[in-house]
Design brief:
Layout: E1 19-22, E2 29-31, H1 34-41, E3 48-52, E4 58-62, H2 63-75, H3 80-93, E5 95-97, E6 104-106, H4 109-114, E7 122-127, E8 130-135, H5 136-145, H6 148-160
Antiparallel strand pairs: 1-7, 2-6, 3-4, 3-5, 4-8, 7-8
């Protein structure tokens, strides 16, 4: 009996963990950290959708992930007006792009101006299949709002629910 050839499987593609820093260049391009470049390079579709859902924080979605949101908006019946409003904001703020050969993505003019992204440090954090892009002002505001008491209470609640 012949030995079967070993089956090789690629590990699942995962967004990088942690916080990464970057800035826009003078042409409004965001240089992606190498780990994000590797992630996006491994996707079957290179197209990205960059938007904001709240006009404060930008999000970078692989296009396949963004399609899931579009389906969600289409099928959300609990509060269709809320879905329509957020879908409108996402379209108003959004644009498709692809990383260039140097791992840069262009943030369109309207979004980067509305979120005051130019000339400031940007913080990139992967969350639920996309990347949140915080300006330094928004990042520091969120960081300072989390009191030790609130964090402790939230951590206890999550650990009781199964967080390890």
């Amino acid at each position: 009996m012949e030995d079967a050839a070993p089956v090789t499987t690629n590990p699942p593609l995962e967004l990088p963990r942690g916080r990464f820093s970057s800035r826009l260049d003078d042409k409004g391009r965001l240089k992606l950290p190498a780990t994000f470049q590797q992630f996006f390079g491994g996707l079957p579709e290179k197209k990205l959708f960059i938007t904001s859902l709240d006009r404060n924080i930008a999000q970078i979605y692989p296009i396949a992930e963004w399609r899931k949101n579009e389906a969600f908006f289409d099928n959300y019946t609990e509060d269709p007006e809320a879905a329509r409003a957020i879908a409108f904001i996402a379209s108003d703020c959004g644009a498709e792009t692809e990383p260039d050969g140097q791992g840069r993505i262009t943030i369109h003019t309207e979004l980067r101006r509305e979120l005051a992204m130019e000339g400031t440090d940007l913080h990139l954090v992967a969350y639920k299949g996309h990347i949140d892009v915080y300006t330094d002002a928004i990042y520091q505001k969120i960081k300072s709002q989390a009191s030790a008491e609130d964090i402790s209470r939230s951590l206890n609640r999550l650990q009781k629910a199964g967080l390890r």
